[in-house]
Amino acid sequence: MTVVTVLHPGSMGAAVTAELVAGGHEVLWVPKERSEKTWRRAREVRATACDSLAEALSRSAVVLSVCPPQVAEDVAATVAAHAFAGVYVDVNAISPQRVQRIAEKIRPGSEVVDGAVFGPLPGEGRTARLYLAGADPAVDLVEPLFTDSSLDVCRAGKAIGSASALKMAFASYQKAARTLAGVSHALAHAHGVGDQLTAEAEIMVSAILSDPQYLPSVAARAWRWAPEMGEVADTLRAADLPTDMAEATARVLSFWEQDKDQHDLPVAQVLSQLRSGRTT
Known about the structure:
The protein is of the alpha/beta class. The protein contains eleven helices and eight strands. The protein has helices at about 10-20, 35-45, 55-60, 70-80, 95-105, 135-140, 160-190, 195-200, 215-240, 245-255, 265-275, and strands spanning about 5, 25-30, 50, 60-65, 85-90, 110-120, 130-135, 150-155. Strands 3-2-1-4-5-6-7-8 form an eight-stranded mixed β-sheet, sandwiched between helices. Helix 4 runs parallel beside helix 5. The mean pLDDT is about 95.
């Protein structure tokens, strides 16, 4: 059995706690200044309450930080102030730069593991993936905690920030795509063509993120897609809808304007042009 402190049992933290407890591990949490909802979740997943963070840390070999991204550094700083000497696992949806700053706060007392969860809340028939990055001894301690659980552990490399970079890359598409869908449907409904939009979407090719080989064809058409997105922005504006994403898409497409009709470019070259930000 390994003793783990989870900070804090929100929806994801409670789901992860349940998996740990089911695996025979003791999970500690600190109720101080937590909401009634957090108390209820902690009780339901059989987490053990501690009177103070100092007590929890003194008993734990591993700390899992599962909190809103905007407070991830504050949580890490609080743990660092107690000179925690175990493994600190940050599984928040934060940038590689932020998790690297957290590693600097925590060290040299603790070893840091960069983590990222993909998929639904684990448990009750649902499985998710937990990506871990960091030094092998630290990852080797964390990985067995989830043996035979609903969290499948995957290694993202040894560099702190690798797992978070993967999460940010995926979220940049996943969250934006869903937001764009909302804007698209709002525009279609404003013009009375919502059902037709849904029908067109049903016959679309859906493997967009999983097939980067199609990106050169996007770059080759960017010279005419960018002006089209300008027209989209005008249409959205007239319907009193946000234009930001359409305008941003037009700006990104402008990075590929020099690739007009060049459908056979290597994918690596197309991607590098986005990083360079060249527009001519």
